[in-house]
Amino acid sequence: MHVSFGAYYTLILAVLVLLLGKLMTRHIRFLREFNIPEPVSGGLVVAAAIFLLHQITGLTLSFESGLQSAFMLVFFSSIGLSANFSKLREGGTGLLVFLGVIVVFIVMQNSVGVGLATLLGLDPLIGLMAGSITLVGGHGTAGAWGAVLENQYGLGGATALGIACATFGLVIGGLLGGPLAKRLITRHQLARPLTAAEQQSADSIAVGEGSQVANFESSSHTPRLITTDAAVETLALFAGCLAFAEFMTGMTRGTAVQLPTFVWALGGGVVIRNVLDHAFGFKVFDRAIDVFGNAALSIYLAIALLSLKLWELADLAGPLMVILAAQTIVMALYAGFLTFRIMGRNYDAAVLAAGHCGFGMGATPTAVANMQAITNQYGPSHKAFLIVPLVGAFFIDIINAFILQGMISWLR
Fold first, then answer.
1. Which single residue of 33, 170, 321, 411 could bond 362 by disulfide (Cβ 3.0 to 4.6 Å)?
2. CA dihedral 70, 75, 77, 81 (to 10 degrees)
3. Which DSSP string corresponds to 173-201?
C-alpha cells in the first residue's frame, strides 16, 4: 500500500516534525549538549515510526520532492550570499593556512572513506557519503548529495545513509575536540587554568564571540531590523541565486563543467554577494540571509527525514560503523598532529585543533562549543574564534563542493 502527500500536507508535516524536535531538545539534555538540530531529532523519531509502520503493515509514504528541492536551493544560496571574501583580510595569513589544512584533510577523509568502502566490497560512493559529504558537510550537504547520488548514480538509500553519518559526526565531533585540545595544552604546557576572576572575564568574551559567530555582524550600533523592505530585498537576492542556478544547470548539462544545481546556487550567491559589495558598495543584510537560510534548512531537513527509508540501511550498518570508526581516528590524529603543528604549536593552535574536530566531523556550532569549553578554562583565543567560524560557516562548503564533484567524476 502506498500513500502520497502533496506540497501543502508535506509542509504541514514538516512543521510538525520541527515542533517535535523543539520539544525534544527542550527536555533532553543530550540533544542540547551535542547541538543536534531540531529537525534531525524530531525527524529521526518520525522516520523510525514510519519504518515500524512499513515493517508491520507494508505501507510506504512519499512526500512532495519539489518542495524539498526548493528549500535546499534556498539554504545553499544563503551560504553563498554569506561568503564575503573581504573577510579573508580579517583572518590574514592564518586563515589561508588553515584553509589549506582543511583542503588536505577533506581529500584525506574522502580517500579513507572510498578506500575502506572498496575493501569492504561496497560502492565507493558510499565511502564519500561516510566522508566529507556528511562529516565536513553536515546534514544539509548530506541531503543534497544524497539526492544527487540516488537520482544520477543509482545509489539507493544514499540520503538515509547520509543523515545517519552526519548525526554520528555531530556527536563524535562534540566528544573529540575538547579532550584533544586539553591534552595538547597540558602536554606542551601552553596555558594554565584560569582563576575565578579570569574565568568570569573569559565567559563574557566567549559570549561576545558567540554572538558574532551567529550572523557575522559586529557593530556597536543598534541592530538593523528585519523589516518588510529588508525581507523583500533579501528574497530578491535569493531569487537571483535560484535563477542563476537554473540557467547554469541548463547551460552546462552534458558538458565537462556540469555541476549539481545546489552547487550553482551556492556559487551564484558568492558572485552576487561580492559583486554587490565591491562593485556597487551595496551592504547585504547578513542577519536576514541567515534567518531565511536557517528556516529553509530546517524545513528541508524535516522533509528529507520524513522521506527516509530506513529499511534500505539494514545491510550497511556493520561496514558503515567500521568506516566511521576509522574516520574518527583519522580526525583525531590529523587535528592533534598536523593541524596543531602547522598552525603554530601554540595555545591558539590547540584551540583551532578543537574547532577543527568540531566541524571536521560535525558542524560549525559544534566547533564553537568545543573552543568555548577550552577558552572558558584556559583563556580566550581571538585568532581561533575569528578563523573557525569564517572557515566552517561558508568557505568550507564552497571548497568541499568542488572537491566532491571532482572525486565523483573520477570515481565514475
1. 170
2. 150
3. HHHHHHHHHHHHHHHTT---PPPHHHHHH
Q: How many other CB atoms sit within 10 Å of the CB of residue 152?
A: 12
CA 70 → CA 18, 75, 134, 404, distances in Å?
A: 18, 9, 20, 22
For residues 93 and 35, the answer to whether their CB atoms sit within 8 Å is no
Q: Please tell me what DSSP assigns to residue 395.
A: I
Q: What percent of the chain has pLDDT over 90?
A: 28
DSSP state of 130: T
Q: Using CA atoms, how far apart are residues 113 and 142, in angstroms rounded to an integer?
A: 15
Residue 284 per-residue DSSP state: -
Sign of the torsion angle spanned by Cα atoms 201, 204, 207, 213: negative
**Gyration radius of the chain over CA positions:** 21
409 exposure class (CB count in 10 Å sphere: 0-12, 13-18, 19+): exposed
Burial 30-57 (b: 16+ CB within 10 A, else e): ebeebbbbbbbbbbbebbeebbeebeee
259: left (phi over 0), alpha (psi -120 to 50) or beta: beta
If DSSP states are collapsed to H, E and C, what string results for 325-394? HHHHHHHHHHHHHHHHHHCCCCHHHHHHHHHHHHHHHCCHHHHHHHHHHHHHHHCCCHHHHHHHHHHHHH
Q: Mean pLDDT of all residues in the chain?
A: 83
The amino acid at 67: L
Position 33, amino acid:
E
With contact defined as beta carbons under 8 Å apart, do 299 and 267 qualify? no
Distance between alpha carbon 103 and the CA centroid of its chain, in Å? 16
On the CB side of 369, how many CA atoms lie within 13 Å of its CA?
19
pLDDT tens sequence across 245-296: 999 989 988 787 777 888 888 889 989 998 988 888 888 888 899 889 888 8
Measure Cα distances from 88 to 98, 99, 208, 274, 320 in Å: 12, 11, 21, 12, 37
Please name the helix (run of DSSP H) or strand (run of DSSP E) that holds residue 4, with its range, or none: strand 2-4
3 state DSSP class of 402: helix
